[in-house]
Amino acid sequence: MTQLAIGAHVDQTDPIAEARARNAPLVQFFLGDPQGYQGPEFAYAGGAEGLKADAEAAGIDLYVHAPYIVNVATTNNRIRIPSRKLLQQHVDAAASIGAKGLIVHGGHVNKADDPAKGFDNWRKAIEATDLKLPLLIENTAGGDHAMTRYLDRIEGVWAAISGTEQADLVGFCLDTCHAHAGGNALETVVEDVRRITGRIDLVHCNDSRDEFDSGADRHANFGAGKIDPDLLASVVRDAGAPVVCETPGPADAHVADFAWLRERL
Ligand SMILES: [Zn+2]
Questions:
Q1: Is residue 4 part of a domain?
Q2: Which has the closest alpha carbon to 245: 63, 66, 8, 3?
């Protein structure tokens, strides 16, 4: 019997109530619009301070997912510069609620670009950001120019940031749906990622509606997708990190997913 902490991605209005509804020791949520540049917002009635205090009192760990549009790797200044700003704003906001980590996607470069430019832009982003909490870079499912779809690119990002002063504050979030749909063998992905990064800080456990290497990012509830159930459980077991299920809700669907997973761990 393993006692891995398992929670879910939830609505940001009242993450404490959402955690309680799922009997979960951790929850992940957005702060503001996941598709917008306008910066973080606190929807919680008690504001940032209230959320921090209430989460501590309830013993609930908070994780914040940065907006999807953050792309610090791109060579496009009109995206990279606002992305860096948004990243710092979310670091500050996530730290202010006592979050355990801020999750951000690896981003991508443009078709004509050398991926090395993206790696170096990651280095610059880490150097330019005051990391007040762990920044967990997540693998993504699609695109040929992505920074964290394939292992060789993840290796490039890690090589670039490993020499920075705040490298210890940069961790990895392994998404099972993205790994599968991105074309990485789940049989070895934990070992493969750890060899590169030395760490897996969080698992996004999701089944996938799509085939292996499809490049599509469509999450499914456990057992309802194309990932072999035992393989999904083995990734969670081997990673040994807290788990966030980003599967379709509502709360009882998440509770069913937690039970499905625990049965197989
Ligand atoms: Zn994810």
A1: no
A2: 8
